[in-house]
Design a protein that fits this description.
Number of strands: 11
CATH topology: Jelly Rolls
Number of domains: 1
Radius of gyration: 18 Å
CATH architecture: Sandwich
Distance between the termini: 56 Å
CATH superfamily: q2cbj1_9rhob like domain
Structural class: mainly beta
Order of helices and strands: EHEEHEEEEEEEE
Number of helices: 2
Largest sheet: 8 strands, antiparallel
């Protein structure tokens, strides 16, 4: 029997799912949308745009069905939360070559997700650790291979990749280091129905 053991206390699950969908058809839909320059999570020179439509999953019922399956798995099987859920907002992010976002989180949400119809070694997303910085130890301030001391982790995207993560996690669209447009569908999840514990109870209706 081993006399050393490391227990992963309070881990944060980030789900990675490869979907079986027609990504070309989805990108054709993304091309047809109208966009506004994103100023909330980017600087004026960051070439990144958000769709004017913030309910795009209503136009993509098959994609929404698959998203629902994966979110339900993460909520019911991974977290073991006994709650229903709803999509509050969903939008397309269009990131031109060189474009990027500032570090941000998604407020007033339980979970968030990002789907990439096409991946690329130049399409990366960075997620920051939510743990406070009590120690300033120079050799662990930068990203590290150790999940226990990493301050941030950068993930490379792949075709038809869906990432689901807690909305409180700060993240950043890294600079688009390619000659292609980086498209993604993002969404937020909020509980729905009756939520109760002991003497506290609340019923959350549909969010429009």
């Amino acid at each position: 029997m081993k006399d050393e053991n490391i227990f992963n206390a309070f881990p944060i699950p980030i789900g990675f799912y490869t979907l079986s969908v027609d990504n070309y058809e989805i990108v054709n839909y993304m091309d047809s949308l109208d966009y506004n320059r994103s100023m909330g999570s980017s600087t004026p020179d960051a070439d990144i745009y958000l769709s004017k439509d913030r309910k795009v999953l209503n136009d993509l019922p098959e994609l929404k069905r698959i998203f629902t399956e994966k979110v339900e798995y993460q909520i019911k099987e991974i977290y073991e939360w006994n709650t229903d859920f709803q999509f509050t907002k969903s939008w397309v992010t269009k990131c031109n070559p060189g474009g990027f976002s500032q570090t941000h989180e998604h407020a007033n949400s339980l979970l968030s997700g990002t789907y990439y119809p096409f991946g690329h070694e130049g399409f990366n997303i960075m997620i920051k650790s939510p743990l406070p910085d009590f120690w300033d130890i120079s050799n662990i301030n930068a990203p590290t291979s150790s999940m226990y001391s990493a301050k941030e982790i950068t993930f490379q995207t792949t075709d038809n990749l869906l990432i689901i993560f807690p909305s409180y996690l700060q993240h950043k669209v890294m600079p688009n280091d390619s000659k292609d447009i980086r498209y993604s569908v993002a969404f937020n999840i909020f509980p729905k129905g009756k939520i109760s514990k002991d003497d506290t109870e609340i019923t959350i209706g549909e969010v429009y």
